[in-house]
Design goal:
The protein is an alpha+beta fold. The protein has helices at residues 6-24, 28-44, 64-81, 90-98, 150-171, 188-199, 248-262, 270-277, 286-311, 323-331; strands at residues 55-58, 103-108, 114-126, 132-143, 175-183, 203-208, 214-216, 220-221, 231-239, 245-246, 315-321. Helix 2 packs antiparallel against helix 5 and helix 7 (248-262) runs antiparallel to helix 9 (286-311).
Length: 332
């Protein structure tokens, strides 16, 4: 795609040479672990062809005015896709784009209209030895009502995975998992999100008690309102190394990685609080907002402690099961 642009080609060649030099400087076992995880992710990345006239691109921040226009279009698209429900407010989307916190990938038809929109980002998790790893969180995927082009969804997902892999290589970090968090419920929009997660190979997390009874492991997201309680949600995981088990410590590391995205300092500003309350930034001194963030971090920590407490009776490692595998296990 860049072979007609000598400047892009030279830059990519330079980046590849730099990566190889940085890898050579690492201990052999560390280098092999990195390269193995990257190769596996490359193999998992869908490959296909787009229908004629369809174009996929990443939504990028250029300036404040153009970002507002892009966000307004995405907001309109999401409200239609999710039947009027607001998934995320416009200023949060603007902050996410401006600070490169959240990635948005869109597929457009020949008329330039959105067909599919994917929202994702990378989170850092820690191994038991303290080593950093990267996981990709799929926040939501939305399709135009009535559109059923699986090949388009596949290619949008591929664009997100390719960028995620690029970041892992830039940071010299192994890739851990693909993660999905969806609301509870059974409406059409939620069912479509879960279907995408299953399509991406994500599975739900279960544990066995001392009697061998299998139950889904608790997951709660931090509150996005004035509540001090966690929001129960469906949680799905695909481990890049192919395992269908993970330790309780691994699970908590993943949970903490996702929770950290809710409390990012970029979202705790006078301007954003004024937007939420329809007030003046002067009425929300940054010092007060910082104190609120500290209270919010305390709420998040209590939610994590609750999840850890629920994990204690679980015997052995946690298991990842698809709905079909869960049903089959119940029948046996």
């Amino acid at each position: 795609k860049n072979n007609m642009n000598p400047e892009n080609f030279e830059r990519e060649q330079g980046e590849q040479t730099s990566l190889e030099q940085r890898l050579e400087a690492l201990p052999v076992n560390q280098r092999e672990k990195l390269e193995a995880s990257w190769k596996t992710l490359e193999e998992l990345t869908p490959k296909g062809e787009l229908p004629e006239g369809v174009i996929i691109s990443k939504v990028e921040h250029e300036d404040a005015e153009s970002t507002k226009t892009k966000v307004a279009e995405m907001q309109d698209f999401l409200k239609k896709a999710f039947e009027g429900e607001e998934m995320v407010d416009e200023m949060q989307m603007e902050i996410g784009l401006q600070h490169k916190i959240v990635d948005y990938y869109g597929a457009r038809d020949a008329e330039g209209k959105l067909i599919t929109l994917l929202s994702s980002n990378s989170v850092e998790t820690k191994t038991e030895s303290g080593q950093s790893e990267l996981s990709m969180v799929v926040w939501y995927v939305a399709n135009r009502e009535g559109y059923k082009g699986k090949s388009v969804v596949k290619e949008v997902a591929a664009a997100g995975l390719s960028d995620f892999l690029k970041r892992a290589k830039q940071e010299l970090k192994p890739v851990k998992a693909i993660l999905g968090e969806t609301e509870l419920g059974d409406d059409d929009a939620v069912r479509r999100e879960r279907a995408f997660n299953r399509y991406a190979g994500m599975k739900r997390v279960y544990g066995k008690d001392k009697n061998g009874k299998l139950s889904e492991v608790l997951y709660e997201a931090p509150p996005e309102d004035e509540s001090t309680k966690g929001a129960p949600a469906n949680f799905m995981v695909r481990l890049i190394d192919g395992r269908d088990t993970l330790s309780k410590e691994e699970y908590m590391s993943i949970v903490k990685g996702i929770h950290s995205q809710y409390s990012r300092p970029e979202y705790f500003t006078s301007e954003y609080f004024a937007f939420l309350e329809e007030g003046d930034p002067k009425d929300f001194p940054q010092e007060d907002v910082d104190k609120y963030r500290q209270r919010y971090l305390g709420i998040t920590e209590k939610i994590q402690q609750k999840i850890e407490k629920k994990l204690k009776p679980v015997q052995g490692d946690l298991v990842l099961l698809s709905e079909r595998e869960k049903r089959k296990g119940a029948e046996e």
